[in-house]
Write a structure and sequence with these properties.
Layout (H helix, E strand, L loop, with lengths): L1 H15 L4 H10 L3 H7 L8 H13 L5 H7 L6 H14 L1 H10 L10 H15 L3 E6 L13 E5 L4 E4 L6 E6 L12 E8 L8 H9 L6 H14 L5 E4 L2 H9 L8 E6 L8 H14 L5 E5 L7 E7 L2 E8 L8 E2 L4
Parallel strand pairs: 1-5, 1-7, 2-4, 4-11, 5-6, 7-8
Antiparallel strand pairs: 2-3, 8-9, 9-10
């Protein structure tokens, strides 16, 4: 129980603070509420407990005509002190349904805002290699980050710059605190492949509502971005593969259609859920596959939270770039020339 309490304390201080007053306050109260802590112990060890708990409550509350539904619909207007008894009452009444969600749902955010720093990285690689791209995302969830060239971007830096698809219905706004991003050429993306153990279908209403519930209630812009990305996603052809990436990647590299492209394998905020051995297996696999085809590997959370860009050729890994202090939700980053 001490570990669980520490998890919610950390979530309040490091995650929810400054972003979700509701979840921050609830965390501070949950750590002293034994019945709620006991309920939360039903969440599997493999899942981030605060994220899955709050998403499950939000998902279920928006389907029920209870006072808690109003809290989620209008979080800025909620009285925090009065909201906690509503949470207790809701969890008591719908305990069995919540436990079922704990045991059947996964924390699979698909934060489209991260495209704000991925797009310039992909563009830079396309210019450097003078090749069209094949994108392969590990832990793709719904695959929304495979559509990076179908979004429009506004980046605040020394002067406001924009790039991407100016006709896109979705404009992503982020801030660059690092070196200025130079002029970007639009990359040619020929192949888009996403791999996940559980692919989310955003055209399935129930699955779409679940990933909306993974977004904290105060973050309305993220919810609107997800809604816009949903419709763009349907128009962008891609392969979404269900399975283990260690088994699927070798079969993809056997595809002759990718030979004349530059393969980029990327994953953001996924590797923190990998056991240590799987991290080692991934790097060893990429080194072996690089004997067939050079790979750009873009990732974070293998060793640290920074975003790394490595080039792997003939089994040798070269560090090309590191973006430090990149925001997990993609609101800001520090570009490096």
């Amino acid at each position: 129980m001490e570990k669980l309490i520490a998890t919610f304390q950390r979530f309040a201080e490091m995650e929810a603070h400054g972003r979700s007053p509701l979840y921050e306050y609830w965390c501070q109260r949950i750590i002293n509420h034994e019945p709620l802590l006991n309920l939360i112990t039903h969440i599997p060890q493999t899942q981030p407990k605060p994220n899955l708990f709050f998403a499950s409550v939000q998902y279920l509350a928006l389907q029920k005509e209870t006072p808690l539904k109003q809290v989620f619909e209008h979080p800025q207007e909620a009285n925090l002190e009065q909201s906690f008894p509503l949470l207790i009452a809701f969890c008591t009444e719908f305990q069995h349904e919540l436990i079922q969600l704990f045991q059947t749902k996964l924390v699979q955010t698909n934060e489209v805002q991260r495209a704000s720093y991925l797009y310039p990285l992909f563009s830079e690689i396309a210019v450097e290699t003078k090749k069209p791209l094949t994108l392969i995302e590990i832990g793709t969830s719904a695959g929304l980050l495979l559509n990076v060239d179908h979004y429009h971007y506004q980046i605040k830096q020394q002067e406001l710059i924009s790039f991407g698809d100016e006709t896109s219905p979705l404009t992503l706004v982020a801030e660059n605190f690092g070196d200025p991003i130079p002029f970007l050429e639009k990359p040619v993306i020929l192949n888009r492949i996403g791999i996940d153990l559980n692919i989310i279908d955003v055209n399935n209403e129930e699955q779409y509502e679940w990933i909306q519930s993974l977004i904290w209630p105060e973050l309305k812009e993220r919810k609107m971005n997800l809604n816009q990305a949903r419709y763009i996603h349907a128009k962008c052809e891609k392969q979404l593969l269900t399975g283990d990436f260690t088994a699927l990647l070798p079969t993809l590299f056997a595809n002759e259609a990718y030979k004349e492209t530059q393969i980029i394998i990327f994953h953001t905020h996924v590797a923190n859920q990998f056991p240590a051995q799987l991290k080692t297996d991934l790097l060893e696999l990429l080194e072996r596959l690089s004997n067939e085809h050079g790979i750009y590997h873009i990732y974070n959370n293998l060793y640290d939270p920074d975003l790394h860009v490595d080039l792997i050729e003939h089994g040798v890994t070269t560090e090309k770039k590191t973006l430090q202090h990149t925001d997990g939700h993609g609101n800001y980053f520090y570009w490096k020339q």
